[in-house]
Amino acid sequence: MSLSKTEVMGEYQSYMGKRALFFLILLLGTALLASMAVTLGSASLSIKEVYVAIMARFLPDYFESTSYANTIVWGLRLDRILMGILSGMGLAIAGAAMQGILKNPLASEFTLGVSSAAGFGAALAIVLGAGFVGGEYLVIGNAFIFTLIASFTVYGLAKYKGITPETLILAGIAIMYLFSAMTSFLQYVGHAEQVQEVVFWMMGSLGKSSWEKAGIISAILAVCLPYLIIKSWDINALGAGDETAKSLGVNVERTRVISMVLVSLITASIICFTGTISFVGLVAPHITRMVIGGDHRFLLPGSALVGALLLLGADTLARTILAPVILPVGIMTSFLGVPFFVYLFMKRRKVFW
Fold this sequence. Notes:
By secondary structure, the chain is mainly α. About 75% of the residues lie in helices and about 0% in strands. The relative contact order is 0.15.
């Protein structure tokens, strides 16, 4: 039974309305959670003091705040909240893009071994004090550079055998185990304090957030995200298979390689500051796909919003659940991610994509 043009348009408008409502709910939810998170913490500040400190920055003639409140709100909380939102967005976008270009629902931004590489770079700096840059940026610089080294090594190995989803995943697994083994070796020869620092870094944390770091991540997202959005049709085509994508005029290898490089850059710029934060890049795209479908024109920005909400929520829980002790946010994202995958496994049964 065929549908009339009016019925088709009605179905399309209903579907677009559902997507718009989903985006609106996520935006409002993130704003509400951020406004709540800024009032939470071990410092003894009332809700009024917190918001007076915020308003005093923009309307100094009408509001007056104490230096203590300004330090807590602007120096410790707001930058951490912004970092959580941006990091969640970046990791979720990277995960959604990787799942699309690799046609694998279990792919994430760490599939290419970048997490293990970053961990090795950080461990190298912490245990041996060796790295590409010095001073306070030693750990950050090492994590960033080794992430890029891993990505280009995976690309080189895959290029040698032909760039396909299978070769990228296999090369990524090989690189992951290589860097994991080298990290384990450094932990074995390191002192107890050094090993503890390495383990804590690999758990992931937003504790060293700053406005400067948030600005760097914002700039990289502003550069990388537009290309991925523009190429969303091509990524959609890749989901139907390489041969189908080629028949539709997609340059499969170039799209896959450039997307991989941008995903690696986004991931590197985040985890060099935060350490390894797992599950956001896996969970956020699946949640978004379950609600609004797999069209990457909407999946990428939708995943970004879901990722921001997830990571901000996880960090808020990490700061408050055992206050004044602050848990690494990577622990909280794992606790949140595992039940979701159990639910996905039980609900979807044989269909996961």
